[in-house]
Amino acid sequence: MDPDAVAKAFVEHYYTTFDSNRGGLANLYQDGSMLTFEGQKIQGSQNIVAKLTSLPFQQCQHGITTVDCQPSGPAGGMLVFVSGNLKLAGEQHALKFSQMFHLMPTPQGSFYVVNDIFRLNYA
């Protein structure tokens, strides 16, 4: 397993799903998963998806600038750090963002998100 390839595939899947069907992200999280969104901590798959689907915009498009990853611990986890641009429908300028995912393997051979931290980057 090439960690960089796994990270790239995860990032592509996550942001494509976020931009087209945020509710579809539910299967990437579990009950113990935690999202910190702009400093607000949210735990559990249902609560995380409720937060993401209640954001005050319906349409957006993520443009990924960088994806960095590192193996994490003996259980086969991975840290994935993403930076990019977030374009909201009707807005002229894109917002810069950073997001970190801690992925853990599932018994089925895929990964789920244990930790997810999102921040907009203000100049």
TrEMBL record:
Biological process terms in GO annotation: mRNA transport; protein import into nucleus
Keyword annotations: Cytoplasm, Nucleus, Protein transport, Transport
Entry keyword annotation includes Membrane: no
Record domain NTF2: where: 6-120
UniProt protein name: NTF2 domain-containing protein
Organism: Trapa natans
Alphabetized SUPFAM superfamilies for the sequence: NTF2-like
Tagged with keyword Glycoprotein: no
One Pfam short name: NTF2
Subunit details: Interacts with RAN1.
Compartment(s) of residence: Cytoplasm; Nucleus; Nucleus envelope
